[in-house]
Amino acid sequence: MMQISVRHLDKITIFDVSGEIDFATSPELRKALLQELKERRMPRVVVNLQAVRYIDSSGVASLVEGLKASRDAGSRFVLCALNTKVGEVLRLSKLRTFFEVCDSEEQALAP
Amino acid sequence: MLSVVRGAVTRLTERLGFPEPECRAVVRAVDEALTNIIRHAYHGQTGRPIEASFRSIRVRCDGVQKAGLEILLEDQGVRVDRAKLHGRRLEDVRPGGLGLHFIHQSMDTVEFRHRKGKNRLRLVKFLNAPEPHRNC
Questions:
Q1: Is residue B77, in this structure, part of any structural domain at all?
Q2: For residue A93, what is the domain's CATH number?
Q3: Given Cys at both, which of A28, A67, A80, B127 links A108, Cβ 3.0 to 4.6 Å?
Q4: Phi–psi pair at A3, nearest 5 degrees
Q5: Which domain holds residue B53?
């Protein structure tokens, strides 16, 4: 199971993702990210991953797609509050440096 | 269903005494392997048969007795092309192709074969493996 909720703060969209991102649930994450980036074109999109208990390669792929779409839209795409499990998977994928990553949501929202 | 398997493999690896990061590694490998079977062997169809067996093993490797976990995953999907079982280069940043890397990074032995109409993936993780990716 995975849950996604969306908040809007000034010109920032914040995705709160929780649960497990895998083969079954990652298409929903991908769709939510791409739809938001396409329709609202906010200058910054923040994805809070603090409550994610599991992420697989298809989940990472969804985040990569979100990042690429944000570049096309001229938006910043920021991941924040990575727990041990998410950080480990991003490190293994060698994609950690490819993303803008902040330790906390406060940092991700800072001007 | 993948979530159920992940839960079961987590408990199994914990019971066998694997450290927490290695429990996560085995769970990740099994999850990625099952996902690959559904996606490639069964073309995305869920509900098709996958046989999974888990066995505690002891083997002698370079004169040292080692304990570990052997996992066999078998499916009846289309024959998988072994040449495509290498994943993409990690420097090539794009969606997809990471699952195989996760499997190889996570396990000490990864073997694939096709026999009698079945794809069979054999994964082994040793307890306190002295060197990763050593085939014994």
A1: yes
A2: 3.30.750.24
A3: A80
A4: -120, 140
A5: 2-126
